[in-house]
Amino acid sequence: MSDNKYHQERLERPAPPPGCPMHATWSPLNEDYLDEPYRIAAELRDAHPVFYAEELGYLVVTKMEDLERIFADHETFASVNVQDPVFPLAAEAQAVLAAPDFNPTAVMSNRPEPDHGKIRKYTRQGFSNSRIKTLEPFIRRRGNELIDQMLRSGSPIEIVDALAFPLPGETVFRFIGFPEADDEMLKHWCGDRKAFSWGKPTGQEQTEIAEQMLAYWRYCRDFTAAKQANRGDDFASELLTGHEENPDDMTYREVESIVYGLSFAGHEAVTALICNTLQCLLPRREVWAEIVADPSLIPNAIEEVLRWHSSQISWRRLTTVDTEIGGYDVPAGTQIFMNFASANRQSDIFDNPDEFDIHRPNAAHHISFGKGVHYCLGAKFAKMEAQLVTEMLAERIPSLRLVEDQDISYFPNITFRGPNTLQVAWD
Ligand code: HEM
């Protein structure tokens, strides 16, 4: 397999570090952890800041200082495994992805230096503050349309479907330059990538997702080819210009692959962030009243949501050489599970870490967007979307609340966290 393949299976596991504590049963896919990860994450961290999770085959690192060191040292701790399936793929799914034209290449989150830095130079321009700001009118217009539809349908409503899923998808599709007419098809193709790379889908599910990924990749290739002939004021056009100016820094295949990767990176975690924000704010009526009265509190409130109930609670790395973590000798080839859920609630960094406090002075010290060369390119983008949605809802539906006693479930996966459905009501 080529080193830069977008999704790779890494089935070999070196022996766990000698003397390292082992956990035979804990997995981020366990039902109790999916239900409420934070208490368990803290208990695991307090017992053993670094331990080996046998079920998962990963070394689990739980403390902020260790996570920061891992993020900073991208040569020892490569990000190459972040888009890989966690568990082996079924033969049928492998066969689908073996199609000769399924050839996206690792480009951003999963591409090592120095190539990553060359590519990021172009993508960073596309994510400049001024370009992101140009999306604000679209987010406001489309957000207001979806809220109008919610109000017309009447209280109560399921808000993932009504607002939190369609808006981030459509926003990133407009940013990339996809035509509006393709939105429904695109949302369908991208929806299950979370299961493929971070979940434990059945063989049948893997095959269905693989077929969608193949269809989506083919779409991205056709789209990029069409853009070449017909440029617009969009990110894909900018990437193509960047490629033409310096084809050695960013190849045409890499442009296609950025388009392929971004459509997942750009909306799934934002949908969750919007829902998690509502889950944090709406039940605390006095906090919601403060937000309604003073929207300038929203940016720090979103940082606190990213710390306390983040839409991404882990990320991965792979050791490239023998190294050391937490006093243990870690062999090259070890898969690392970086547990944000424990680090974001560390009491030596955050006072009363289990308390949700929109006025917390250091709320933004969370690790939810990573750190270092791969720091989330869309962090400002994501925060702006969540801020605008919160602002629009606070202004237009101040009586918004969560429907009481609803069953809230989370999609089984090792990284992304947001409710599958969220019922809201208003007066
Ligand atoms: C709440 C929402 C989001 C969260 C929690 C999140 C989190 C992350 C994390 C943890 C990383 C890996 C950082 C590292 O390895 O150091 C990452 C990378 C990335 N994110 Fe996000 N993200 C979010 C939204 C977005 C959005 C909206 C976009 C694009 C529109 C985006 C685009 C990217 C890209 C392109 C990378 C790879 C950057 C690189 O390797 O240079 N993300 N994100």
What structural keywords apply?
alpha+beta, 427 residues, globular, Cytochrome p450, three-stranded antiparallel β-sheet, 11 strands, 19 helices, single chain, six-stranded mixed β-sheet, binds protoporphyrin IX containing FE
SSE layout and pairing:
Blueprint: E1 22-23, H1 31-35, H2 37-47, E2 50-53, E3 58-61, H3 64-72, E4 77-78, H4 91-97, H5 115-126, H6 129-133, H7 136-153, E5 157-158, H8 159-164, H9 166-176, H10 183-190, H11 193-198, H12 203-229, H13 235-245, H14 252-265, H15 268-281, H16 285-293, H17 298-308, E6 314-319, E7 323-325, E8 328-330, E9 335-339, H18 340-343, H19 379-396, E10 401-402, E11 423-425
Parallel strand pairs: 1-2, 3-9
Antiparallel strand pairs: 2-3, 4-6, 5-11, 6-9, 7-8, 10-11
Helix pairs in contact: 4-12, 7-19, 10-12, 12-14, 15-17, 15-19, 17-19
Characterise the protein shown here.
There is one protein chain. The protein has 427 residues and is an alpha+beta fold. 48% of the residues lie in helices and 8% in strands. The strands form three sheets. Strands 1-2-3-9-6-4 form a six-stranded mixed beta sheet. Strands 5-11-10 form a three-stranded antiparallel beta sheet. A hairpin with a 4-residue loop joins strand 2 and strand 3. Helix 10 crosses helix 12, helix 15 crosses helix 17 and helix 15 packs across helix 19. It is globular, with a radius of gyration of 21 Å. Protoporphyrin IX containing FE binds next to helix 14, helix 15 and helix 19.
